[in-house]
Amino acid sequence: MVLVAYQWYLVVSVVFVSDDIIPKMDSTMRVVSLSLFLAVFSIRYFSATGKSSLIKLNDDNWDQILAGHWMVEFYAPWCPACQSLQPHWESFATWSEDLNIKVGQVDVTKSPGLSGRFMVTALPTIFHVIDGEFRQYRSSRTKDDFISFIEDEKWISLDPIPSWKSPASVQMSLVSYLFKFSMVLRSIHTKLMEDYGLPTWGSYLIFAVATIVMGALLGILLVAVIDHFYPPKPHITSKPVVSTEDKKRKSEK
């Protein structure tokens, strides 16, 4: 902003003041030249100030939010509430440099693992993250509200997400893999119906049979592993116990 204002100042100085530099330019030409210069610099100014700093996050690069100060939104393109929030979020992202934060966005339709890792149950969902500490934003959703939330450090009054539920924990990583696996199954289900023309019940029947077969195979594998590490003891037949009286009777006979 300062650089653009300084450039404007130089243009005005050259066109209106410096007769030595442009001695043959009349007043009309100077006005036309000034207008052209101002138009060019205005375009540069608004493109510079209006440039969005919104960072697209996914399953591969999400871990960059574990360092620094972030605001992250989870959305879906088909979600009406997300569509209403989008202009406010993009406008808020243009303030990221002034607020010394980074503004990110996650499309849950493309990154289902992250929706499981963060346990996103409603859209849009917004998280505040600072140095790996997560808090869920639940206030009003306008650009001014977001700016005030950061400038006034309102996030300090919010309780952080417990460590056992932290998206960076091992257990939430496992949940993210389960979400990814569920999306793979869903895509297979869709492919069976759309590409192969199977009815819905036919696709479900295939999944049921596959589940039973996989369960049986895993059970056999588990038994084999247990037998390998804890082999069964050989069966020993015990001899009948003979009492002292029986021995005496046998000896008398």
**Beta-strand fraction estimate:** 5-15%
Uncertain segments are: 1-25, 36-50
Straight-line distance between termini:
122 Å
Structural class comes to: alpha/beta
Question: What general form does the structure show?
Answer: elongated
State the helicity in percent bands: 40-55%
Let me know the average pLDDT: 77
State the major sheet.
Answer: 5 strands, mixed
Write the element-wise H/E pattern from the N-terminal end onward. HHEEHHEHEEHHHH
Strand line-up across the major sheet: 1-3-2-4-5
Subunit structure: Interacts with ATP2A2.
Membrane topology: Single-pass type I membrane protein
Pfam families: Thioredoxin (PF00085)
Keywords: Disulfide bond, Electron transport, Endoplasmic reticulum, Isomerase, Lipoprotein, Membrane, Mitochondrion, Palmitate, Phosphoprotein, Redox-active center, Secreted, Signal, Transmembrane, Transmembrane helix, Transport
Explain this structure.
The chain has 253 residues and is an alpha/beta fold. 54% of the residues lie in helices and 11% in strands. It has 9 helices and 5 strands. The protein has helices at residues 2-17, 27-49, 80-93, 96-99, 112-117, 143-151, 170-194, 200-229, 244-252; strands spanning 54-57, 69-75, 102-107, 125-130, 133-137. The chain has a 5-stranded mixed beta sheet. A hairpin with a 2-residue loop joins strand 4 and strand 5 (133-137). Helix 1 (2-17) packs antiparallel against helix 2. The longest helix is centred in the last third of the chain and has 30 residues, at 200-229. It starts with a helix and ends with a helix. The relative contact order is 0.08. The model is unreliable at 1-25 and 36-50 (pLDDT under 50).
